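TASK: fixed-backbone design
INPUT:
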């Protein structure tokens, strides 16, 4: 039977970036209470107010999504810059290589999902809930971030609702069907142990 919990926006933990360049809002981390150097996986949001390098996380993969603002370009290692905006699909890249961020026009807020490469993989999908969305959850752990708007959910007979900034965390649900209804922009994060 799936276990669900709603992580409300006012319970997210605020903490400094690893490189000291700003503040991040930690939504969820495993193991619970893990520090930046010893998490298995981590989901957070951050406001980026100036150009600068990303923190390095050895042995880690990350996916970045732009939640607010005019976007930024990422110079990853020696590759051509990648421009990310609110309309871009979530962008996956290694968190243990040099990355320089340059803002396009003013501050941005991003969603950052990270997993340790030797134990976990993850996928992030952007969902636009017009009336309803239904999908099968493929892994044992999923999180649904309600970025803006309101969404009602139903999973294995359990019902509830999410408002802006809330996260529905679902554990032990492999193969369960999730329904979301309302008007909202959401992100579905699926984390799988390997």
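OUTPUT:
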């Amino acid at each position: 039977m799936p276990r669900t919990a709603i992580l409300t926006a006012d319970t997210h933990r605020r903490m400094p970036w690893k490189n000291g360049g700003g503040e991040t809002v930690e939504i969820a981390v495993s193991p619970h209470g893990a520090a930046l150097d010893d998490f298995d996986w981590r989901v957070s949001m951050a406001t980026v107010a100036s150009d600068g390098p990303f923190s390095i996380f050895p042995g880690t993969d990350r996916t970045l999504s732009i939640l607010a603002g005019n976007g930024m370009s990422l110079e990853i290692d020696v590759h051509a810059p990648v421009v990310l905006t609110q309309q871009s699909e979530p962008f996956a890249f290694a968190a243990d290589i040099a990355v320089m961020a340059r803002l396009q026009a003013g501050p941005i807020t991003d969603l950052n999902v990270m997993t340790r490469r030797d134990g976990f993989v993850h996928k992030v999908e952007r969902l636009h809930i017009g009336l309803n969305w239904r999908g099968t959850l493929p892994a044992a752990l999923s999180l649904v971030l309600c970025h803006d708007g309101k969404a009602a959910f139903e999973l294995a007979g359990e019902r509830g609702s999410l408002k802006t900034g809330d996260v529905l965390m679902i554990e032990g649900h492999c193969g369960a069907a999730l329904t979301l209804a309302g008007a909202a922009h959401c992100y579905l994060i699926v984390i799988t142990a390997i």
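COMMENT: Residues 121-193 form a domain with the Jelly Rolls fold (CATH 2.60.120.10).
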